[in-house]
Amino acid sequence: MSSAIIPVSPLKSAKSRLKKILTLEERKNLIKNMLLDVYTGLKNACSSIYVVSRDREVLSFSRELGVIPIPEENTRDLNDALQYAIEKIEDSTVAIVPADVPLLRRENIGRLIKKVENRKRSALICPSRGGGTNLLILNPKDIIKPSYEGFSFLKHLELCRRNRVKLYIYPSFYISIDINTPEDLGEIFIHGKNTYTYRYLRELGISTFPRHSSAGRFVIVRD
Amino acid sequence: MSSAIIPVSPLKSAKSRLKKILTLEERKNLIKNMLLDVYTGLKNACSSIYVVSRDREVLSFSRELGVIPIPEENTRDLNDALQYAIEKIEDSTVAIVPADVPLLRRENIGRLIKKVENRKRSALICPSRGGGTNLLILNPKDIIKPSYEGFSFLKHLELCRRNRVKLYIYPSFYISIDINTPEDLGEIFIHGKNTYTYRYLRELGISTFPRHSSAGRFVIVRD
């Protein structure tokens, strides 16, 4: 059996790089919609889904979704919070996914989890753009310590090597896309037409056009 | 049997977004190293590899590599040049790849081509970031017209739908990474340690550090 843990940072400070295009309330709603997409991608693949956060609004929204909330207590940083959550859960295999990867639901996560479940002392990692980690599956759940921030992809690789953990790298384009900048939203318009996130952005009157210049890959406009 | 076509734009105007960090000569060498990586990723998968270009230096470098050069003649744009190249080749299945996707060699291209070869009237597409197309495999070679520029990923999808072509989408993180900005080079440092492109960047004294801020995902520095 396997569980998923979704760490969510406090809503009021999150996604500040989207300030130019979205109000605080809209950024909060965007995060909730992305969380819904991530939940949808995980729900048939995991026996339990947990959200770890220090934000009461996130925890109560999660409870409504059918996700088990883990309130953070005295945790210093993301790795500490994840460690705390990992100790709380009972399943032997755990998948860690951030809340801002809505295109994850286009992948078959159940198949990836099965791969790791079927081999003791193994892990699976999906890169994010920028050297990060957007999916980490561990069996058993404490085979390596979560080591996010910085080039976490390289840190996780090195920890697996050092601990002789069988490592599967799954280089998924969809899972690599975390949403932080207006530019990032463009990918949702191309690849995420079936997501809650896309519908919410459309509701807000946001759309996108191609731009291939030094200024970036997308033009993002709002009515 | 299948062929690959690599379109290469004139060296002197290419990769202008890297001006701040690389001289013209270095940008030319970067393109050649990326072309070498793309060639390496394709060579065991295709019976013939073609480069289509109007640049004499590219054409002669390609010939040295063992690639068949197709000089562009009176072609108006990229799509026109590709159309011209497709008509010249004899194999029934063709793979189109830009020259600036060095991480392509981390994927098993032979397996992807086989998939398309085994099914008449089929195509396979890999997205690039920004709504583009970084790999397009067609069987037969003229089943749809290449439609690059703008959101070509969506254009190719629509053409396949309209022409009832069986379409495989292969969302590869590695193939999604085309190199246009200093920022893009960061991915080579994380995922491309076995590439010619990486070795060339290291030779130039370039390295990278993590940065998670509005300014981007990587700090790129040069000694």
UniProtKB/TrEMBL annotation, chains A, B:
Domain of life, source organism: Archaea
Gene that encodes it: cofC
Pfam families: CofC (PF01983)
PANTHER family in the record: 2-PHOSPHO-L-LACTATE GUANYLYLTRANSFERASE
InterPro entries, sorted: CofC, Nucleotide-diphossugar_trans
This protein's UniProt keywords: GTP-binding, Nucleotide-binding, Nucleotidyltransferase, Transferase
Function as written in the Swiss-Prot or TrEMBL entry: Guanylyltransferase that catalyzes the activation of (2S)-2-phospholactate (2-PL) as (2S)-lactyl-2-diphospho-5'-guanosine, via the condensation of 2-PL with GTP. It is involved in the biosynthesis of coenzyme F420, a hydride carrier cofactor.
Entry keyword Ribosomal protein: no
EC number: 2.7.7.68
UniProt record similarity statement: Belongs to the CofC family.
Organism from which the protein derives: Methanofervidicoccus abyssi
Protein name, as recorded: 2-phospho-L-lactate guanylyltransferase
Pathway: Cofactor biosynthesis; coenzyme F420 biosynthesis
Keyword Nucleotide-binding: yes
Broad class of enzyme this protein falls into: transferase
